[in-house]
Structure formats: C-alpha cells, structure tokens
Input
Amino acid sequence: MATKGQNRTIVARRNAGQDGLAESSLTDIRREIDKVDAKIAGLFEKRMELVREIARLKRTHGLPLEDKVREKEIIAANSLRIADPQIREQYIRLEKTLIEISKQIQGEELLED
Output
C-alpha cells in the first residue's frame, strides 16, 4: 500500500504529464493560428490592392467614395458564410472595420494626382 507521500508523488507526476500534454496541445494550436494569421495577412494585402483599383476607377468615372447599399450587401452576404451564430456578430464587426479601412485607403487614393 502506498504512503501519503508516495500518493502525492504519483499525483504530481500524473499532473505534470497532463500539463506537458496541455502545453504541447497549446503550442500546436498556436502554430495553427499563426498559419491562419499569415493567410489573413496575405488576403488583407490582396483586398487592399483591389480597393486601390476600385478607387482609381471611381476617380476616373467620378463615382462617390461611399456606397452604403453595397456596404450593406457585403455585410449581409458575407455574414451568412459564418455558420456559428455565436461568432457571427464579431465577424460583422470585423467586416465593418474592413469596410472602414477600405474607404480610408480609397479616400487617400482619390486625393492622389
């Protein structure tokens, strides 16, 4: 039969093993997040390139910077792509932020000669 001291050692070893697994899982998940973040950064750059192209077309054709109807359409359509209703509102906030950044970039582009 194990003594109290031996039981504590066994429990401590078991917990250390679980902590090691948790640390390993945490590291693996963080690596996956890093990969996703890298993809997001690349997609963001691509989106901003396209935003600049739109700004040039707007300038050439005398179109206004804002198109509130289009903004609402984008938010509505893209939010439907989020299956998890618990994160849909956060995605809508992200989409609105992207639109604001896009308008800022377009505004700067429209001011250039």
About this structure: The domain at 4-111 is CATH 1.20.59.10 (Chorismate Mutase Domain, subunit A). The chain has one domain: 4-111.
